[in-house]
Structure formats: structure tokens, C-alpha cells
Amino acid sequence: MVLARRWALRVHFQGAPKLEDFELVQEELEPLQDGEIFYQSEFISVDPYQRNYTLRMPIPPPFTMPGSVVGQVKDSRNLDFPVGTRVVVYDGWREAGIINPTTAGNHGTGLDMVRKAPDIGNLPLSLLLGACGMPGNTAYFGVTEICRPQKGETVLVTGAAGAVGSLVGQISKVKGCKVIGFAGSDDKVAWLKDNLAFDEAFNYKKTTMETSLSKGVPQGVDCFFDNVGGEDASSVIAAMNVCGRVACCGAIASYNVKEPLKTTAIQYFLIRKRLKMEGFQAAQFKDRWDEGVLQMAKWIQEGKLKPQETVVDGFENTPNAFMGLFSGDNLGKMVVKV
């Protein structure tokens, strides 16, 4: 008999996530059937998207909190996934689990539920959930395929100290761009400039977007990678140069609000400046997934990218790590070490 724990969402979130929204469940796992694998999680990913994703689940709570883990196959009845294989599994916040990689189908984001982990050499396994995983590919494809910055252009990123934003800025520097970032504390602003070589960074809690734009980008913005949305996004779009590109990646400003945000209309600027604005998800590039992972790993190994992680120890602390995303507790990618 094998017992394993999982975190379930007990009730739908109302406003910011709270500890009482979750329930720790212990269950007995069934014996392996043909085609199945038994995996043990090593790291769990917590991400802002998981909050709104729960609203799209086809069943009402309680259900296992959605999310991904990197783990190792400990028992197998699937020849393609022998014991010892490292896997990335999109099966929720589980300490361990049983799944059939062949029949599990696609995760709600469009990615396969079980993927063999690409070989990233001697880099930490946790990066498979961060700079060499979904956040990394979100940044990589968002910059290279949506924004397409040219050398000498100005790239502005909101949520710049987060898992995606911090990589967006660094990739843009690799491309020879001037990079402006916005984050939520003076320490994060200093980290962006001192550690990641952002050309300028601002604490959005201490200054208006208009003042920051006037000081930091008087020449205008060519590429805008938006992780936040809200009125600040409208202000950036108003300050963009002709033929600028906007990659809409996240909208964390609206995730915990109870009433829809009211923001300045942007259509005038889109038309007058001939802007291109596109929403995207990393999963739309799933056929090129390993390309992004391996390129990010290569840049890290070459010292061109510095991945940053906030690691929380203990499976029992997964909800606390998740809640910390919405209060700015993380620097870079937030992961839980099981």
C-alpha cells in the first residue's frame, strides 16, 4: 500500500487566495496497470495562472490544485518511461502520483500531461519548472516570436522581477536591446539593475507610470512585454513608438479583483501608431518546446542568463508559496522543494 498526499482546492477563491481555501488530502494509490508509471515529485511549480485556471475546471471544488511538477519515475509498466526517467508532469500539486503518459492526453494549457525532461546537463532540476520550463519558454517565444526586438530597440517589461519578466529582460539584453523593468519593491528594482543589467527599473508602488516613462524612456517604447495589465499597461501603450509590438502574457493586476478593472481605451493608440498587440501562451509553441528549453539552458551555461529562484521547502508549504506570489514574496521563479 502506497500513501501519497495532494493539495486540493476546497472552495473557489474569493479575492486573494487564503489558506482556508485549500485542503491537504492523503490517499491510497492503486497498483500500477499496464502503461502506467509511479512518479515521486521533487519540485512543484506555483504560478499566478493557476488561480484563474481553477475557474475553468470542468468540475466544482474540491479538486486537486492544478500545476506541474518535476519528478522521477520510481516504478513503471510503460516501456517508454523506465524507472529513473525524469519527467515533467502536469497532474497537480501531488507528492507522488500514478499516471498513464500515453492516454493522459493534454493539460488544459495544451501541453502533454507527461513529458520526458529534456537533458539540461548539470543545471538544477528545478529549472525545468522555471527558466528551462514553461516560464522560460513563455519568455523565449514571447520575445523572439511575438515582440521580435531588433538591436538598439527599447523593450519594457512589467512584472520584471518575476519568473517570466526577469527572463524577458535578459533575453532582450542578449538581443542587444535597451531594457526597462517595473517591479514592486526597491530591493527588486536594485536587483534588476545590479544583477540582471537592466538599463533602468522602477518601483511601480512609489511612482506613476507616466513619470517613470518620461524619465526612463523619453525615446519611447518599441516592444512591451506585459505581465500585469491594468491602467499601467494602457499608459505604456500610449507611450509606444510607431510600429511597436505588444506581447500580452499576463494580467495579474486583475486576478484578485472582484469587479472588472476600468482602464483607458487603447484603440486610438493602436490605430494611430500601427501597433501590433498579441496575446499568447507558451503552449502554442509546444511543437518547438525542446528548442526553447535547450536554448535557455545554453544561454545559462554560457553565463548570458542568470535564472533566479525562490525555493520554499516542504510539500506542506505549497499553498503558502502560492499565496506569496500575490504579495510579492518571490524573486524570480517560485518553486516548492518536496
Automatic annotation (TrEMBL):
It catalyses: 20-hydroxy-leukotriene B4 + NADP(+) = 12-oxo-20-hydroxy-leukotriene B4 + NADPH + H(+); an n-alkanal + NADP(+) = an alk-2-enal + NADPH + H(+); leukotriene B4 + NADP(+) = 12-oxo-leukotriene B4 + NADPH + H(+); 4-hydroxynonanal + NADP(+) = (E)-4-hydroxynon-2-enal + NADPH + H(+). Its main location: cytoplasm. Pfam families: ADH_N_2, ADH_zinc_N. Residues 15-336 form the Enoyl reductase (ER) domain. Its EC number is 1.3.1.48, 1.3.1.74. Keywords: Acetylation, Cytoplasm, Fatty acid metabolism, Hydroxylation, Lipid metabolism, NADP, Oxidoreductase, Phosphoprotein, Prostaglandin metabolism. It is an enzyme of class 1 (oxidoreductase). It is found in: Cytoplasm. One of its GO terms (cellular component) is cytoplasm. One of its GO terms (biological process) is prostaglandin metabolic process. GO terms for molecular function: 15-oxoprostaglandin 13-reductase [NAD(P)+] activity; 2-alkenal reductase [NAD(P)H] activity. InterPro entries: ADH-like_C, ADH_N_2, ER, GroES-like_sf, MDR_fam, NAD(P)-bd_dom_sf, PTGR1. Belongs to the NADP-dependent oxidoreductase L4BD family. Monomer or homodimer. This is Prostaglandin reductase 1. The lineage of its organism: Eukaryota, Metazoa, Ecdysozoa, Arthropoda, Crustacea.
